[in-house]
Amino acid sequence: MTSKERMLSVLRGKPADRIAWAPFLTYWWDQNLVADAESLGEIGFKRAIGADILMRGHRNRPTNLEYTNLEMYLTEYGTTKYTEKEEGNRKYQVYETPIGSLQASYIYSPVGDTWFLQGHPVKTVDDFKILSYIANDMRLTASNTAYEEECAKYPDTLFVPLVTPFTKTAFQSMLEYWVGTEELCYLVNDEPEVVQEALRAMQKVSLEAAKISAASSAEVFISWEDTSTTNISPTWYEEYILPEINQWCDILHSTGKLYIQHACGYIRSLLPLIASSKIDAIESVGGPPTSDISAEELGELLPERITVIGGIEPTFLIHSTEEELKKRVETLCEQLKGRPFIMANADSCPPEVDVNKFGLVTEYLYRYYGLEPPPITSFDKSKLIAPRGISSYHGSIGE
Known about the structure:
four-stranded antiparallel β-sheet, 399 residues, globular, six-stranded parallel β-sheet
């Protein structure tokens, strides 16, 4: 089986020749320049370490290019004007409309070499009206050129485009980007009608995106939902988030497409809701401290129709010895054998992870099955340059 065939079989609940191993390199790839990796790109690097190649929501990245979202539509505005500018260690994203303007502000930190969102665009009740205007002003046009180009270049790769231009549900986008958790807590209770109006406008855009996606040639879609009870309650998840996700799933399933939910945090209290949902896979679950439940527990508690993706907690990948890593791979293979499961580091990969640990996971996985590992490139750690600059993942519409 190719990587793509293997992972699609797993996601569809069909037999595969072995458990897939699909590392999640975001952040690690941005801050670790592997010697001569320009000629490899992210996909080439994954192939060099013998991994299955799953590209979550973005195009292949050579080391000289920033993260580029992979979507099945083009997003344009009518009368809204969007601009981005940098002033020293500050960055601003500005949305100008006929009824007013919104601005997101970022501050640069040399620790981690990244930009942090410091000021959310929506700060007042009136700003919600501007947000509604921006959403109503968005126009989506079907465009699968980028996806088709990537698939033609890398036929063994499973590319998973984003299902919504907001990169996540409308409510989660408000929490993380547009409004912020604290302010949204107050406004949901104090100004529910204003919040609901903006939610409806944003959800209308996302449902249109899901329809375009369902009509495309892509097989699987994802959203960066960041599901976690560290910033949402089960009640909020049930009332504001899950209905939108289930609508996406209905649309995608109508044409045989699948949906993966990125759930990188505490989800134990949400399991009854997730188990009864229409999602096809939960991605980035690996146990404490990143999550409050292990992949093994999740495999026992969720119905088998939902694929589990993860298993190797990110900080464990930093600190584990080779023997501990081998044991972890073997435990996951033993306990999740027979149910839909794709092994991965559970959430974005810390830059501190040893470049050669990825290849070790490949080797241990193959040895577990009694197979000869594929050729695995060993990289010279002394030739790594880190940090080398990191892209901003906060896009112009709430990423």
